[in-house]
Amino acid sequence: MTKILYSTLLLVVILACSCTKDDDSKSDGTGNVVIESLIANDTVLNAWQVTKVFAIAKGEGLIYKWEADHGEINGSGDHIEYMAGTCCTGINTITCTVSNSENSDSKQIKLRILPFK
0.90 cut: is pTM over it? Predict the structure, then answer.
């Protein structure tokens, strides 16, 4: 009886130790890209006024792409300068897409452009 109990206990221990979980996700986070925030120095500005916009992102090997539905973007990388003329009054949207060889993330920020003063 003791032999059967020890054999069963040994079998349970061997099975418990040999079980592994297959997980295809990257637990180290190297492929993950996350934009934590998109911040502008000013979100309400007059036409022709310049503001800086910053992307705060996490990940490795990050590439930044900036787009605006109106106005002009100057610069590259994790921050740019934005300016809109008198033809662009109203709500303007700036989109930042951050990517690496595996993933990407996008965020938008809206700026209100007032007429020139």
Answer: no
